Amino acid sequence: NGGINVGEYDVVLRLRNPNNYKWENTEDEVTTVVFEITQATTEITNLTINNWTYNEKANEPASNTNFGTVVYTYSTEENGEYIETVPTQAGTYYVKASVIGNENYTSTSITTTFTIEKKTIEVDLGSYVSNLTKVYDANTTVKFASNTSKAVTVSGVNGETLNITITGTYNNKNVGTGKAITLSGNFTGVTGGNAK
Question: CA-to-CA distance for 43 and 67, rounded, in angstroms?
């Protein structure tokens, strides 16, 4: 009664030449021995997934296993709740490769991290500012009217509205006209988390 699943099985052995040979522990021509198949240990190796950029096609994870079928799930935390839905927002995530065991092999899982990079959006900041002036104050900070920053909105990757806070610095703190200015813009808000 041989088998391939976990359990105990009998092997019946019969002497081919009983006139010249015998079993050590019996005078019978036939003897039975028992062998056992025990539960195997499942291993998952080489779990990989490549990063991608927001609004691009998601990359699929890959791994190897000696038993079972690998299922992939995702989370924002290594020990957090994992779901099958692939994330779409920019950020760092964890992917878990899991095999559900049965009577023949054990359950196991491993994790690794990946990143959805922010999408680069080119914005001409200079088109949002003009006629910048200020009273000498011994620093290089640009004044937008009476403020040290200016809030503007631009169109995002999928046409969504992105908020940008513009700041600037003069090339030096001295009084003058036609001075060189360096402008910087930072995206703010939830949708701004997907752009840079």
Answer: 7
